[in-house]
Structure formats: C-alpha cells, structure tokens
TrEMBL record:
Span list, region Disordered: 42-71
The protein, known as: Uncharacterized protein
Domain of life: Eukaryota
Compositional bias (Low complexity): 42-58
C-alpha cells in the first residue's frame, strides 16, 4: 500500500513539474537560435517585398530591455519599502538575500505568479536547491497553470564569465522566444547561487533584469523568527511534546534583517 501511495504521489508530482517551464541552458540557446533564425528570415522576406517608398518598423519585444537598473516593485509591502530605502542609499537595485533565502523566495514568487500581479519570472538556479512544488503550499491562490509562467534553468556553476553567460541567455530567452508567458509582464530574473555581482559582472541591460540574488552575501539576512524556549520541560516531556515545539517553530515565521529595516513573513507575520 505504501509503495502504491508513493508511486501515485510521484506521478502527481511529475505531472505538476511537467507544467513548469524548466529548461537546460542548451535548450534555451537552441530556442534562441531558432527564434533568431525565424526573425532573420522574416525580416529578409519583408525587406524584399517592401518598396523603397514604404516605411517599415521593427517589431519590438513585448518586454524591451530596461535602460537602467531600477528597483522592482515587490508584492510584499514591507519588503518593497526596504528595497526602496536600500536603492536610495546605495543606488544598487537588486534585492540581495542571504541566510535562509528559500522561504522568502517561495513567498515572493508565489505572490508574483498569482493575481493581482500575474507576472512571469525567470529563475537561474546554480545550486539546484529550489523546489518549485513548494510554491503550491505557499499561496492559496496559486494554480498549476500559474506555474507555467515560472521559467527555470539549472546550469552548472562555473567561472564568472560562464555564469554571466547563463543569465544573459535567460534574458534573451525571455525577450525573444515564443514562450508561454508572452502575454504576462516579465517581472525580472532571480539568481540563486553563483556569487555574482550583477552591477559589475553583467552587461548593463542584463543586470537591469536581475531583481533578486540569493547567495552567501547580501544586504538582507533571513532567519527563523524567535522561538519561545521550553526550559520548563524535562527530557521525557520534551520528547513527548515534540509536536507543540514544532508548531511553535512554524508559527514563529521568518525574519529578514537589514540596515534599512526588518521584514517579517510566514506564520509569524503580523503586517
């Protein structure tokens, strides 16, 4: 029976994962080559058929590159406030998260994919630790259809030049290939791992699209909220009261601390 339940769960998980836009770097580059070849052929045919007196216009991408790196609008008001303060003080746009960054990413991405935002998001994960299925338990309004607008690639970590190339390839993919999210606004790119400084190691147009970095260095550190101590319990009582202690940990939520303020999210968030 347990084996049958496990197989059924695996089958459901496989179907859900199949609806998430996940691609290798090779697949992204192949899509780009196909897209550029099609665009070139179309442009050539148009130029051949157009008379000299006819004015032609080029088709701009749905999400043209940003001229400068500006802070994104975050769907978590307190987080948006911190990002704005940080940008005013440093002129550095990305939200750089360190510590226990995954819970914040799950909360942020789930909010971005669902109404009223309904955005598309690109995610470059150099650690392969991000689990998209966790999003389904993070936001009650998130549907399996929304997951198709999270575009994930998991390239291997390499030299800074290699990692910068991976991020740039994802930007090109989001802008110029006919993926499923062309009708949604592209909010930006989330980069997990890699240790890159977007402002220094990426082209300006690509750096402008990097909205969040999550790595060992960052200006917002995320940790568990304060959990009440259970000093009055003996060893046997503590072992027997494991569920209550686990519930206390979960209800504590998560806390992001920075020089520009604090954000609380999860079960322990109060506003």
């Amino acid at each position: 029976m347990w084996a049958m339940q496990t197989a059924a769960a695996s089958s459901v998980g496989a179907r859900v994962l199949g609806e998430i836009e996940e691609a290798s770097l090779d697949e992204i580059l192949a899509s780009l080559r196909t897209g550029f070849a099609t665009a070139t052929a179309t442009a050539t045919a148009t130029a051949t058929e157009t008379t000299p007196s006819t004015t032609t216009t080029t088709n701009e991408p749905d999400n043209p590159p940003s001229p400068a790196a500006l802070p994104r609008t975050f769907p978590i008001p307190r987080l948006n406030d911190l990002a704005t303060r940080h940008f005013r003080a440093t002129q550095s746009a990305p939200l750089a998260v360190t510590g226990r960054h995954l819970p914040l990413l799950y909360t942020l991405l789930a909010a971005l994919l669902t109404p009223p935002h309904r955005s598309a998001v690109a995610l470059v994960d150099f650690t392969s630790r991000f689990d998209p299925l966790r999003l389904l338990t993070t936001h009650p309004a998130l549907t399996r259809a929304d997951l198709a607008h999270l575009h994930i690639t998991r390239p291997p970590r390499g030299t800074p030049a290699h990692m910068a190339h991976c991020i740039a390839a994802m930007e090109e993919y989001m802008l110029y290939t006919p993926h499923a999210s062309r009708t949604r606004p592209w909010w930006g790119t989330v980069v997990i791992g890699g240790g890159l400084n977007p402002a220094v190691e990426l082209p300006a147009s690509t750096a402008a699209r990097v909205a969040v970095t999550a790595d060992w260095k960052g200006w917002l550190r995320v940790d568990r909220g304060e959990v009440p101590a259970f000093w009055d319990l003996g060893v046997e009582e503590a072992l027997g009261d494991r569920e209550r202690r686990q519930r206390a940990v979960e209800e504590a939520g998560w806390v992001g601390v920075s020089a520009w303020g604090v954000v609380v999210f999860g079960e322990g968030a109060t506003g």
